[in-house]
Design goal:
Helix content is 43%, strand content 15%. By secondary structure, it is α+β, with helices and mostly antiparallel strands. The chain has one domain.
Length: 194
């Protein structure tokens, strides 16, 4: 009885060795999932970095209006400045979610950037950002913040291979799960525009 079972199992194994039908599907199943994961991570990281570059570029360009005195002489309000910033942002960034903070500092060493992130993924009082463009030859800090919702939700949990309570990988989500705080900063001394 046992010999018959072993003989039939041996015959079945030989039959499987001879047939290679479906090998490509099995190989793709083994390689496909890691390949798609790498593809998603690459796409998500590139979109996050392009968003950071777009916000930083718009911040630098709009801050030039403050540095040259165009904001001060034109009597621009915070909303006017934000509109100028929004005109320079890439089209996929929702300008309604952009937070602007403009403050004067006494020295460049005192020009530290804020930390506005909270653990729940929101910004602390985004409507209360200061707007003090300063006078001629004053040191000004222009900060812009944007909460980028990751395109592939759950990707950070998928990348947490340890399954621990450690923080998720910070190269993608640095503001809770599936959110990234994107920041643009310009620190400069106003020109003597008087």
């Amino acid at each position: 009885m046992i010999l018959a079972i072993c003989k039939s199992l041996r015959r079945l194994a030989c039959r499987f060795r001879r047939h290679d039908d479906g090998v490509a599907a099995i190989e793709f199943a083994m390689v496909g999932a890691p390949f798609l994961l790498v593809l998603l991570v690459t796409f998500e990281a590139s979109m996050a970095f392009v968003t950071e570059y777009g916000l930083q570029s718009a911040t630098t360009s709009a801050a030039r209006l403050i540095r040259t005195g165009q904001v001060q002489k034109g009597g621009m309000s915070k909303d006017d400045f934000k509109n100028e910033l929004c005109n320079r942002l890439p089209g996929y960034i929702d300008c309604g979610k952009v937070y602007v903070n403009v403050e004067v500092r006494n020295t460049f060493t005192a020009a530290a950037v804020q930390t506005l992130a909270t653990t729940d993924g929101d910004l602390n009082d985004p409507a209360d950002g200061a707007f003090t463009p300063g006078a001629a030859e004053q040191i000004v800090v222009v900060e812009t913040f944007y909460v980028w919702d990751l395109i592939t939700p759950g990707l950070t949990k998928l990348l947490d291979v340890n399954g621990t309570t450690a923080p998720p990988p910070h190269f993608l989500a640095n503001l809770g799960d599936d959110k990234r705080l994107v920041r643009g900063v310009a620190i400069f001394r106003n020109e003597p525009f008087n």
